[in-house]
Design goal:
By secondary structure, the protein is an alpha/beta fold. It has two domains: 17-354, ABC transporter transmembrane region fold; 376-618, P-loop containing nucleotide triphosphate hydrolases (Rossmann fold, 3-Layer(aba) Sandwich). The protein contains 21 helices and ten strands. Helix 19 (544-557) links the parallel strand 7 (532-536) and strand 8 (562-566). The termini are far apart. The relative contact order is 0.08.
Length: 619
């Protein structure tokens, strides 16, 4: 647990000044409590003077000499002060009032330092967790595409938001308890043991009995905490899927089924949460119960002890007030372990993510890349998802200005070829080279700056039309954005919107039609003006008229650029310079449309499936 705390506190290193202030004010706040008890004891002695003053000087024979010497001085001063107060101060009303006024002053100081303790620690915790979330988010963004194919988006969101909140509780609440309450407890026990050691030991004799059940509950907390975090991630996953797939949910009348699934997951979360609540809260009543037994034993002893030597009123007040102030820190500390166990279970998932290495690492010494006017060469490339082979011995060269189309049945490996070019994955054998440079030796930012992508699944953001196009090249001028929209045949429909280029298009462009969304994505690629284009059936969502217009714009855009086109509709690639036919991860045919038709191979079969067995006779 100490190692875990040091790891969490290490996250707050940039804010160590405020963390130190929070620790310092916590220590002061903890020391004020025994000071308050001591003052109350002195005031009680002044207001209710005893007939005979008893000194309580007891040497600390077990302590080193310098501590004994300091303790003797403090104890003699305390006994003299008590003797003076209880013997004559009550006759000076002004002195008594001044002494009584110290109590609210100390309470004010205690409140002020407690406030500062909470403020500084909360400030540190909030800023540290915000930094951790940003760090975790950035780390996830830089992981490979394979990582996201294996992890659910709802679970990742839960780790960033929910799991990090547990660390915030450690940095604020738990740190406050760790610093302040032990200081209070040690101060109070020192005060009690120095003045009334026997009564203190009697009052504490029953507390060890509750340690065994508390340790059992502590183990349950960690198991339940880990399970609750998993169920919380499940809740977020159900919500994410229901909201993003709301059209399917409504079209198939799945509202009740999705709500039922959400209810089941929520019930599991509640069950685990209540187990944690029971384990956390059982400690308070147990300590109070066993503590009350100790107080009862102490009072019985006190009553018996009064037969021979009655205690002073200040002694009695000191005992009761000290025991009262001791139990609250003990309850806080007993809950602390449960809270730390809960936070540790959550943090394991956070630190596990931070330690996840990317399968597509950045090169230590990246080489510069100039893709304009150079070849793209897939050099005997093999690729596999985990242990499943996807591409085998792909040897393909794309020359500048050449349009190369990839065709094949579903699962043939077309998208995997594009993913390797974008370095979403690395090949298991061979290399992808641009201008003779292995792209694994190039910084990914540099590589992707020179590739424009238009996918079949259009990704737009809940922002203005202008911002969605500008993402192709941040910082582009308004004139360049308008020109890109014109090239993509998007200008007219944009100007037909109420706010034109400043229209908010909604999440994933929900306010636009499919064709409009696709044309915005094409405008973004046009604005990027990259030397390499990757088109994943870029015109699939357009009507016939728009498809012809956008295809003309793409033809103009592709001039002088190496273009890789993933084709699902063969009608879009008749004019390709090179058609590559993939089957089960291998290149089985290469050539132009007419040439492949004459061969009568797989491409001809795909063509006949699309246009009928008689279509090729008219080509």
């Amino acid at each position: 647990m100490i190692k875990f705390l040091l790891k969490v506190w290490g996250l707050a290193r940039p804010y160590r000044a405020r963390l130190f202030l929070g620790v310092f004010t916590g220590i002061v706040s903890g020391l004020i409590v025994p000071l308050l008890v001591a003052v109350i004891t002195l005031v009680t002695g002044a207001v209710f003077p005893s007939a005979k003053v008893q000194t309580t000087h007891r040497p600390l024979t077990w302590a080193p000499a310098f501590i004994q010497h300091a303790y003797d001085h403090v104890q003699r001063w305390s006994d003299n002060a008590r003797q003076a107060i209880e013997s004559g101060l009550q006759q000076h009303q002004g002195a008594i009032l001044a002494l009584i006024a110290i109590i609210p002053l100390i309470m004010f100081l205690r409140g002020m330092f407690s406030y500062l303790n909470v403020y500084f620690l909360q400030w540190t915790a909030i800023h540290t967790v915000a930094d951790l979330r940003v760090r975790l988010f950035n780390h996830l963004l830089n992981l490979s595409a394979g990582f996201f194919s294996k992890n659910r988006s709802g679970e990742l969101i839960s780790r960033i938001m929910s799991d990090t909140s547990a660390l915030q509780n450690v940095l604020s609440g738990a740190t406050s308890v760790i610093i302040r309450d032990p200081v209070t407890l040690i101060g109070m026990l020192t005060l009690l043991l120095s003045s009334q050691p026997l009564l203190t030991l009697i009052s504490m004799v029953a507390l060890p009995v509750c340690l065994l059940p508390l340790s059992i509950y502590n183990r349950k907390v960690r198991r339940s905490s880990r399970e609750m975090q998993t169920q919380t991630a499940g809740l977020m996953q159900v919500m994410a899927e229901a909201f993003t797939g709301h059209r399917i949910v409504k079209a198939y009348n799945l509202e009740n089924a999705v709500a039922t699934e959400f209810r089941k997951t929520a019930d599991k979360t509640v069950s685990q949460y209540m187990r944690i609540i029971r384990a956390n809260e059982i400690s308070g009543p147990m300590i109070e119960f066993f503590g009350s037994i100790g107080v009862a034993l102490a009072l019985l002893y006190l009553i018996y002890h009064t037969l021979s030597q009655p205690p002073s009123a200040s002694d009695f007040m000191e005992l009761l007030s000290s025991i009262f102030f001791v139990y609250q820190p003990m309850k806080n500390l007993s809950r602390l372990y449960n809270q730390l166990a809960q936070a540790r279970a959550a943090s394991e998932r956070v630190f596990e993510l931070l330690a996840t290495p990317t399968s597509v690492p950045e090169p230590a010494q990246p080489r510069p890349l100039k893709a304009a006017g150079t070849d793209i060469h897939f050099e005997h490339v093999d690729f596999a998802y985990d242990d499943k082979p996807v591409l085998r011995d792909i040897d393909l060269r794309i020359r500048p200005g050449q349009l190369v189309a990839l065709v094949g049945s579903t699962g043939a490996g077309k998208t995997s070829v594009a993913n390797l070019l974008l370095r979403f994955y690395d090949p298991t054998r061979g290399a992808v080279r641009i201008g003779g440079v292995d792209i694994r030796e190039v910084a990914m930012r540099d590589l992707r700056n020179q590739i424009a992508v238009v996918t079949q699944e259009t990704i737009l953001f809940n922002d203005t039309v202008r911002r969605n196009i500008e993402m192709g090249r941040p910082g582009a001028t308004n004139e360049e954005i308008i020109a890109a929209a014109r090239h993509a045949y998007a200008y007219d429909f944009i100007m037909g919107k109420p706010q034109g280029f400043d229209t908010i298009i909604g999440e994933r462009g929900i306010t636009l039609s499919g064709g409009e969304r696709q044309r915005l994505a094409i405008a973004r690629a046009v604005l990027k003006n990259a030397p390499i284009l990757v088109l994943d059936e870029a015109t699939s969502s357009l009507d016939t008229e728009s498809e012809r217009a956008v295809q003309a714009a793409l033809d103009e855009l592709m001039k002088g650029r190496a273009t890789l086109c993933i084709a699902h509709r063969l009608s879009t690639i008749f004019h390709a310079d090179l058609i590559v036919v993939l089957d089960q991860g291998r290149i089985v045919e290469i050539g132009k449309h007419a040439e492949l038709i004459r061969r009568g191979g797989i491409y001809q079969k795909l063509y006949e499936l699309s246009f009928g067995p008689e279509a090729h006779r008219h080509d």
